[in-house]
Amino acid sequence: METNKNYQILVVDDEPLIRESLYEILRIEGYRVQMASTGESALEKLKEDNFDIILTDLKLPKMSGLDLLRKVKEYKWDTELILITGYGSIESAVEAMKEGAYDYITKPINDGEIKIIMTKILEKRSIIKENKDLKAIIAKEQRQSFCDLIGASPSMQDVYRVIDSVASSNATILISGESGTGKSMVAKAIHQSDKNRCGNPFIEVSCGALSETLLESELFGHVKGAFTGAIKDKEGRFEAAGNGTVFLDEIDAFSPNLQVKLLRVLQDGVYERVGDNVSRKTKARIIVATNQILTELVESGDFREDLYYRINVISIRMPSLRERKDDIEMITEYFVKKYAAANNKNITGISNGVKDLFLQYSWPGNIRELENAIEGAVIMSKGVVIEKDDFPNADRFLANKHTAKNVNSSEQPLKKVVEQPEKEHILSVLQQCNWNRNKAALVLGINRTTLYNKMKKYDIFDNEPQ
Length: 466
Fold this sequence. Notes:
- The structure is a single chain.
- The protein has helices at about 15-30, 40-50, 65-75, 90-100, 110-140, 155-165, 185-195, 210-220, 235-240, 255-270, 295-300, 305-310, 330-340, 350-360, 365-380, 395-405, 415-430, 435-445, 450-460; strands at about 10, 30-35, 55, 80-85, 105, 145, 150, 175, 200-205, 220, 235, 245-250, 270, 280, 285-290, 315, 350, 385.
- By secondary structure, the protein is an alpha/beta fold.
- It has 3 domains: about 5-140, Rossmann fold (3-Layer(aba) Sandwich), CATH 3.40.50.2300; about 145-315, Rossmann fold (3-Layer(aba) Sandwich), CATH 3.40.50; about 320-465, Helicase, Ruva Protein, domain 3.
- Helix 10 packs across helix 12, helix 13 packs across helix 15 and helix 17 (about 415-430) packs across helix 18 (about 435-445).
C-alpha cells in the first residue's frame, strides 16, 4: 500500500514565512518536500528531479507561477500544479486552471484545505497509475513493433502474425497497400525473420522506376553485346541474391513480356540472361508488392491471371495510416526522436494542437508523408515542442480537414471516398511544383512512373501547362 512518503512536493514562494510554513505542514503529513524561492530555481529543480505536485505562489519575481505552469506543460512533466493567490488575483488563478493548473488556494492559507486538495490529487494519480499498469499488462500481449515496423493497432497485430507464420516458408508473398504504407519494411521483416535466409542478401528492385529493357537486365543480368551499352557480362538480381530474398516493388509495372519470364521463374526457378541462351537457376525467395488492385488489372487484361495466382500464394495487406490512427502518436514519437537526434535538437514531441490535426488529417501519403512532415518540422522548429507553424505547408492539414467535413460519404462508394484525398494532395503538390513531375514525385515520395499513372487515373492532365 502506498504512503505519502512515495510522493514528492515542490513548494515555490518568495516569502520565507509562507514557504517554510507549507514545508512543515506537508512534512508532518509524511510527504517528501523541497523548496524554491523563485520560478527559475524551481525550474532547475524540476529538470533534476521528479515531483508529483508543485505548490507555487502566483505572483513571483520575474517568472510567475503561471509562467512556471506553462514551462511544465511545454516540457510535458508529469506533475500537478496548485496556485497560491490572494483574493484580488482569483481571476488570474481561474485562467491558469484553463491552461492546466489542477486548482488554486487563497491566502491566508488553510491547513485543512491544503490536505483535502492533496488527497484528491493523489487519488487521481493513483487511479492513473493503476490504469497504466493495466495497459502495460495488456501491452505485453501486443507488440508495439516488429523489426522496423511500428504500431500496436489490431490491423498491425494481424500483419505481425502473418509474418510470423510465413517467414520460414518458401512461398511467394504478395504485399498490397497504398504508397507509403511500409510495404518494403514488411518484406524486410519477413527476410529478417527467416532464419534460413536472413544471413543472405535482401535485394529490392523498384520496378516502376525502370524501363522494360533495363528492368529485364537488372533482374536477369545480360551478356556482353546483348544491347547498346552492354560492354561486359553482368549478373542480375536473382543471381546476386543467392539463397536470400528478391523483393519486387510495383510488380504491376511489369510488361506482358516480363510477366511471362517472371512466371517461369516462379514456376521453375529458371531464367536466362539477356542475350544468352544458357538457363540459370535461382533459389532466391520472391516477395512482390503493389499499390494497385491487381484483380482489376487482371480483368482489364493488363496483368496475367496465371501470374496473379502464382504470386498471390500468401497475401499481406498493409493498412493505410488513416485506418490505424491509434498508431499515429507512436509513429510520430519515433520520427521526432530520429530527426531530433539527426539534427542535434532537443525536441521532446508535438503539441496537442498538432496531435489533433494529425488525427483529423487523412494522410494520403501515409507513413512516408508523416515522416517527411516530421523531418521538415524538426528542422524548422525553434522550441522543444513542435507547433503547427513549424510545418512548411501546415495549411494542407486544415484543407484536408475541411474537405473531409464537406464530403457526404454516405452518397459515395468507399473507393471514391478513399481516393479523393489522394487526388487532391497530388494536385496540390503538382501546383506547388509548377507541374514539374520529377520534383512533385520527389515531394510525394513516389517514383515518376507511379505519379504518371496516378495522374492518368485521376484525370488531372487538363490542368497541366503545355
